[in-house]
Amino acid sequence: MLTENGQVLSCGSNSFGQLGVPHGPRRCVVPQAIELHKEKVVCIAAGLRHAVAATASGIVFQWGTGLASCGRRLCPGQTLPLFFTAKEPSRVTGLENSKAMCVLAGSDHSASLTDAGEVYVWGSNKHGQLANEAAFLPVPQKIEAHCFQNEKVTAIWSGWTHLVAQTETGKMFTWGRADYGQLGRKLETYEGWKLEKQDSFLPCSRPPNSMPSSPHCLTGATEVGSDF
């Protein structure tokens, strides 16, 4: 929960440190305050076993160890950044040259939208939700502007395994998991995409739904809800 004065509270399961209270119980019924280095928070998002927050100064914090096991499996030999294994808010590295306006969390990925209209993504790419060829991104990576027809992104939403973005002219772009038709567009195939090497941090074959595409019927949408 985010209060009007920028404080963050959490309750529920803390089995993976997702409450941001490192020395708290494994479950919490009464909401507890999370310490974010005296930063005022303007946006929060909760994933399956991790959470993220953006502050008024544009800094992004992440906590919860839910993405760590996937990262270790897909990035063998690499040391994951601290924010993947922290049970208390840890600054997300790789975003120092940008100012985050909002943050998003899927089941196993995170994303942020900057004041410049840029989208950064990190975490699992199992369903192509990071618009990238890597199986896992341990460091935030920007989705190139040409993916959004060189327009600034003004709003973004995340489902469990897919994302939706809206640009300055009202165009809507969708990408990620599509086996239930959640992207609002037809695809060549879904079942044909599989990671070539599940246990290595190597490029994988790109699924047809991994790059943002604009379903014309959604242009100008004023409200979006993203689930599975």
From TrEMBL:
The keyword NAD does not apply. Gene3D superfamilies: Regulator of chromosome condensation 1/beta-lactamase-inhibitor protein II (2.130.10.30). Pfam families: RCC1 (PF00415), RCC1_2 (PF13540). RCC repeats lie at residues 6-57, 58-116, 117-169. Keywords: Repeat. The keyword Repeat applies. Residues 206-228 are annotated as: Disordered. This is Secretion regulating guanine nucleotide exchange factor. It comes from Homo sapiens. The gene is SERGEF.
